[in-house]
Amino acid sequence: MAHHQVLIIGGGNAGLSIASKLLIQNSSLKIGIIEPSEKHYYQPAWTLVGGGAFDVNDTIKNEKDYIPKGTTWIKDAVATFEPEQNQVTCKSGDKHTYDYMVVVPGIQLDWHKVKGLKETLGKNGVTSNYLVEYAPYTWELLRNFKGGNAIFTNPNTPIKCGGAPQKIMYLAGDYILKNGLQPKTNIHFYSGGGIIFGVKKYADVLNQVIARYKIKTHFKHNLVEINGPNKKAFFEDENGNRIEQAFDFIHVTPPQSAPDFIKNSPLAVPGNAFGWVDVDKFTTQHNRYPNIFSCGDASSLPNAKTGAAIRKQAPVLVENLLHIMKGGKLDAKYTGYGSCPLVTGYGKLVLAEFDYDNNPMETFPFNQGKERWSMWMLKTKVLPWMYWNRILQGRA
Ligand SMILES: Cc1cc2nc3c(=O)[nH]c(=O)nc-3n(C[C@H](O)[C@H](O)[C@H](O)COP(=O)(O)OP(=O)(O)OC[C@H]3O[C@@H](n4cnc5c(N)ncnc54)[C@H](O)[C@@H]3O)c2cc1C
To answer: Is 43 in the pocket of ligand 1 (CB under 6 A)?
Structure first.
């Protein structure tokens, strides 16, 4: 049994940024990070990998090279939480105790919720940028595409990067247009949601993009089954009707929820099927266990689940955690800032930034509701560099 002043569950985007930021403020803290993976991934670039615009190898690095110096990496996975004893139990059977805990293990991809999907993923024209091993397959399918039905799905659950199901569709739409395939192609967007984007300013430009690529949208249609060998996808609409759609190429965004070990723990929002870690939406403190904090994809913070949002959540969490360690108050408040770099074609991007109430919260002194090459450069060059060199080090 090992004891840590601060125990962090998950060494992903949020976990490493928070550990680094804590150490910048107080280098004497004893921090343990429980993280099972040898590799660390820059997931936002998987969209670009799927579009043939980024090398997948540049999205994968060794976790050990990014674990902040001065912290202890516990290479294990948490299985259960015993918050009354300030303790966690890992898959190995080891137990760890803490004074304070930060729970940031990301989101779970629920492939099993779509019948036939797991069996056919990565073959038969069925792909997903949500897994590092299949993002290159998306590009393989696209560059071999000769026309037919190209289908893109978006589930009816919250997902990480709400824009990702559309971004790959717009890259494909641009590829199809530029290669003269539009006359013999049908692009369909099947979404479990009811609208293209929650912020009107950005929805307006996306609707123009959809018209440019001649995309047919079907809202409130949820993917329920895939038959890979027969190249058929089945959707359910809001009235429970079953719709059959033939495909030549299908990019699937899986249903998502909190990891099962969170869902089945006392930390989860009571009675909520998605099972997020139950935190206050402004302070990031757990609603029932004051020495526990969470943010990022696994948390109940009710906004876009993105790395961009974590950049604004992490400083709030760190400030509040350090305050209560000194017996102070939770002064820092998260505004709900979320951002989505909406790739709308090769060399084109709309940088959506907004708060909890879907009001735009833009960074740049120009209209971000326009497609821009400069924002494409931000996504393809600046942000990946910042991630590996500043964000994980707690310096951005
Ligand atoms: C295709 C795609 C496109 C995206 N595009 C963008 C974008 O353009 N912009 C943007 O800002 N964001 C984007 N995102 C989202 C972004 O990657 C996530 O929001 C971000 O990584 C979430 O950080 P996190 O720390 O909460 O989770 P993660 O970074 O996923 O890290 C979670 C960590 O917890 C670990 N873990 C899991 N289980 C356990 C356990 N039992 N015990 C201990 N540790 C555990 C995992 O191994 C992992 O390292 C995209 C994601 C995808 C998949």
So the answer is: yes
